[in-house]
Amino acid sequence: MWIFRVFSSVLFLTSIILSIPLAFDVGGRTCGLAFSLSLATFYFLYSVLRIATPTERSRLRSTLVAIVAWTQWIVIPTLMIWCLNRFSVDSDRSDGWVERTFSGKRAQDLGVRQWIFGADGLLESVTVGGWDKLLRYSTPVFQLSEGFCSLLVIQAAGQITRWLVNRGGSESWMIGLLVMSASIISSSVYFLWRIMQFPEIGNVDATLIGVTITCAIFLGAWGIGSGRGNPIESSLLFAYIVLCIYQIFTDYQPSSPATAPTPPPQPDFPPFPPIIMASYSTLVYVLSTFPSTLHAAFNFLIAALSTITPSVIISLSYRLFVLYASTRIIPAVRESGARALYQEASLEDSDGAGQLLGLLSWFSPSILVAVYTSLLMQHFASTSGGGGDGEWWTSQGGDVGGTIWRWINVGGTIALYAVELYLGKDDMDGGLTGHWKAD
Description:
By secondary structure, the chain is mainly alpha-helical. It is 72% helix and 0% strand.
């Protein structure tokens, strides 16, 4: 039933979003990487099991897949507890995994077994160190894929709005879409003004921002004037460029810490009638008599929520949206038109692109874990400079990071959109909406 699928997906996303940053915060960098690797491995094996055992052919196979699916709610806390037990915080481990494994510091090991399977042993160093390297090298891939998929979504939105205007009742649709475009541009200009108030922006940063915004405005005006674009495409492109710049220079936190307000003087009379105050006191007393287990669970939930960074959640949500939308847009552009927007990609598709998208959809949980961990590592790296709260990241072997790939993504998105406008035709009612019918 679809309601159970939605509920299960929400629980899965919640567990992943809460558990991985909690492992980094409590156990340290190595613990977080090990927990992320164990989760990715578990869901990778689960996806392989689902592909290898088609549920529609055997009731036994479907039962096996269902049992493994339900055990994930036991596997996730078990893996987290094991990683917290196995990998402790060690601020002195600033060298690489190769040096820790093959240097003379391993001379105190009692035997080959401890050298391979012990703490900081060969197995741990190769697996966790290899996962660390893989996530670092995958960061440009994730970043550039986000820009490419965003451009696909922007162009699909432009084609759909053009079809809505041309199919009839164009005046109403045109006015509504113009109002929507103006709202998007106004919101983007506000956040662009917020960006210019950040104190850490230097002369080079200001120059890059100016060149980027100028190119985005020029491309938007060129697309609208030539008829190869429309206001929706231009406004969405401008909004995405502003979003990328905002992510480069801020963590969605205030530029300066707000001073604590002076507490108001105690009033002579209670703010509410006595009956309400008595009810409130009774409620507080009842809550204080709850078992300590409930208090511990509540404190654990608060601690888990406090480890979540708004910038990471917003970036993750946006990446998931554009990646999922691209899996529907690409088949629609290739052959199926509007019908493909309602169909899941499958391994049984006739073309190679559909099979690749179907394969990626099967392994989407592992990809989600990798993308989320990569975003967390970028966040910790960006906050580790300047002796801030993220100094623990560099003290445990993490790199400081940089914004070069974010700027490359911005430049690549603008260049690719410019090529699309240059090679496009005046009649853009093809591809996605070419299969649609207008009454």
